[in-house]
Structure prediction request, 343 residues.
Amino acid sequence: MHVAAAAELRHDWRLDEVRALFDLPFNDLLFRAHALHRRHFDANAVQVSTLLSIKTGACPEDCKYCPQSARYSTGLKAEKLMEVEEVAARAQLARDAGATRFCMGAAYRSPKDKDLDRVIEMIHAVRALGMQTCATLGMLTAEQAHKLAAAGLDYYNHNIDTSEEYYGEIISTRRFQDRLDTLQHVRAAGMHVCCGGIIGMGEGLQDRAAMLHTLATLPQHPESVPINQLVQVAGTPLSGRDAVDPFEFIRVIATARILMPKSHVRLSAGRSEMSDEMQALAFFAGANSIFYGEKLLTTENPQQDADRRLFARLGIHAEPYPSEPHRGHMGSHAQEHGRRAAT
Ligand code: SAM
Ligand code: DTB
Ligand code: SF4
Prediction:
């Protein structure tokens, strides 16, 4: 990153400043977010990733939002860690449909070393297809993070999910600090960090502000910030909650954009429940990354056709593949323009 560009980023946001952004009149907040978005990104480009659940269900953790926890009866069929060839075939389909990044998710508290070895083979296979790689496998030791970085993993997704204060209401089997420790290992190993949270779990405005404040005051901003709207799954303790006010959700996107102007903000889970108009507003507010493909991990995502139509109607194109694939060094892909168009 250039020194001048780095100087534009702040890591010393105060919580009251974050709260003040949330409290701005909607138009003022959106105007500020969009102006910053244009300064740092092509405002009509959206990064396109595809998700695959490589190991499903039977998770020992008790995250109250999650259909994959073994503690809740959601009717989900548990599946063992997939074979490398099958994962490679799914990645190829995603690439051919226009995705530039392939994200592999596993319902682990933390991976066993023998499972990590197979995930490393998957990373090699996906990279060989010319795609960026991302994985989310739960908590990592420093050594595991180094192994993944050495295998060429571009991004590691590990969400803080909510504020430190509200965390205990949602998950009791680990602490907020455990998440921060893994994020630190991922950073130290030289991988890009993908870290965000979930809106709609009964948290207050102060929790949303505190969550974004934690992300924006990390020593380095996460390169990717997924903002998920809770997907309510029957059988999980959080199903039956009131739906989030769409404008409140857009405020979170806009505030994330202002706090972390050079990061990709991902309009993540929950798009199936959003109108096209709401998604358009999210892109205007600074969201510039989505999951593309009919499934997230275990729940529905919009049909590919619908997303292609939405992009066409809005004049949005898929962000090109970065010209220099990440090779373990730190640096921003954001302004790099590749030779390979994604669609
Ligand atoms: N087990 C690993 C972990 O929790 O770090 C990786 C997979 S886990 C499913 C990845 C993320 O998915 C969670 O941190 C959470 O933010 C998100 N997620 C899970 N269930 C969700 C739901 N019902 N709605 C929205 N986001 C959800
Ligand atoms: C993230 O922030 N959202 C994705 C990804 N990271 C791994 C997961 C969303 C999961 C939604 C519920 C499901 O499909 O199981
Ligand atoms: Fe397990 Fe991850 Fe789901 Fe929590 S979010 S129950 S750790 S799969």
Observations:
- The pocket of S-adenosylmethionine (ligand 1) is lined by residues 65-66, 68, 105, 107-108, 136, 138, 158-159, 161, 198, 228, 230-231, 233, 269, 297 (CB under 6 Å).
